[in-house]
Amino acid sequence: MTNLPDNFDPFASRLPDFTENLNVPPSGNQDIDQAPWISVKGTEETASTYVGVAIRPRRLAAMAGALTAVFILLAGRAFALQIAEGEHYTALAEGNRIRVLSTPSERGLIYDRQGVPLVENQPTLSLAITPSDLPTDIERRREVITNLAKLGGITAESVIESIGDIKARGLQPVVIREDLSHQEAVKLSVETNGIPGASVAVSTKRFVRFSDKMESLGHLIGYLGRITKDEYARLNSSYGRNDRLGKAGIESFYETLLRGRFGRKEVEINAAGREVKVLAIEPPVDGNALELTIDVDVQEYLERTLKSQLSARGLRRGAAVAMDPLNGEVLALVSLPGYDPNQFVAGLSAEEYARLAEDPDEPLFPRAVAGTYPPGSTIKPIFAAAALSEGVITPRTTILSTGGITYANRWWFPDWKAGGHGPTEVTKAIADSVNTFFYYVGGGFEKFSGLGVERMTAYASRFGLGKKTGVELPGEAEGLLPDPEWKLKTKGEEWYIGDTYHFAIGQGDVLVTPLQMAAATAAIANGGKLKRPHLVRGLRDPQGNLQEMTSDNSDDPIISPEVLRTVRAGMRRTVTEGSAKELQSVPVAVAGKTGTAQWSSTKRSHAWFVGFAPYNSPEIAVAILIEEGGEGSTLAVPVARDFLAWYFGRSINND
User: Fold this and answer.
1) Boundaries of each Penicillin-binding protein transpeptidase domain copy (predicted)?
2) pTM for this one?
């Protein structure tokens, strides 16, 4: 083996010596920033490579300061995220698996005055989807909706329509199909298990009892319908997109009381949107039960009697009211034709609703409270009371009826009886409905000074005409008490004496509702106290105890009881010898007034009757209207006769 020298470098023979080719910068004070490139020269090419630069202390200090500032900024932000805003971001994260759902309350029942339930809540099963659980990918979401629609036996379009704006729907399930059978519900629970957000929900539906034999209950009770977009926008704080609310009748007017307050349930869900754990519960508060003033037996018989008379004449439209004159409680409220409110429970198709809405007889229209009609001669007792109160007449004032009056030798205003009624005082004028007497009383004639339109309007208003009664139903009409200012503003015409004469006999522009006339008649019956007609007696607790609602009725008379004794005598005379003799067959003494209200030059008049019984101790007041029924004595009086005979016959039999 060859001995190597002590200073032998084993790599020296393998590396070329670049020392001679290395250009070193000159020594001295040359600025380091101007250091040249270091060139390494090869045998054929020259490759230039940047090896590095030295950093001056000042620049190094500046860079260190900048890095320190960045570190402080990042540390501060980390503190904000983890400590100061930690709860906020934790809540956002929890929102991905924790939800607050509403739990419905039990809607309060509605009873008649005898405790008979008029509605019932029935449980129902529905297929629902929570929109926020649907995939965000458009294609995947479309696939899920299509599969769900197929399983539910509905169209994908209907699902999309139900879901609407996902953001607006939030985390609450949206019902896409109702009324599942038990078997369907079980099957869908299994089949939709893998579909995000799909569920089978339990809810209730509201049905009106007896509506199959009492169509007038539709106007009275009303129905529930799914909340509309406009309603949801207005009531967003307390209603969900699946909720139903009262759309008509008592259900609408007392929506808040009947609905109660929904509860809240905080739940933990899994990735598929399924509830896995209940974290907290705020129980719902059930709605209040209402006890109505309505007697379901009285309602049924009054409807049956009115419908029978209408059918016998080939008519369909009419209204009838029965109320207690002593306290304003409405015992029956009938509008015909009516409708079955249970049709709306499952939802009507557009065609089905159109048939109802476009029916010329308007079955959805609550005539008893919203229909306005000329009162005809039924207004005469009010103007008789006004004339007696104002001293325009006395009970003995006599006016000669010769068949009508001629005003200014030009305008003829007739009596209904050719040749007239002869000498007439106020009770005969009411009993025989003598127009001439009320022309004098209202507008005056020759040297006789009448009430004039201002006092006529004032007294009619005292009896509740021209304004809403305040009954607990939506859509009540005010009616109309015309005066010169109204006519000039509405028609652009002056008020003439003929307008006053027409007003005095319930013709022309004056309009009333059947409920207003029942209330006015009740005031005459009870000695002059105008009682507000009302439909609810009070709230019922679960034990059946009644908490009566506060009454706003006044006992102050609107007119002298002595004056009304004369008026009532005239109404009694209507039955004993006037246009309502048929009522003598009723087992108690009845007083009343017929009316024939002209409203068209080509169609029949409306038939009216208003009255009360028993005459000396009134228990009930009624108003009957039959649209285009002709004379009140011919068609309206028989309705009152049959109804009152049944009503008091029932009482006698029970005794």
Assistant:
1) 318-644
2) 0.81
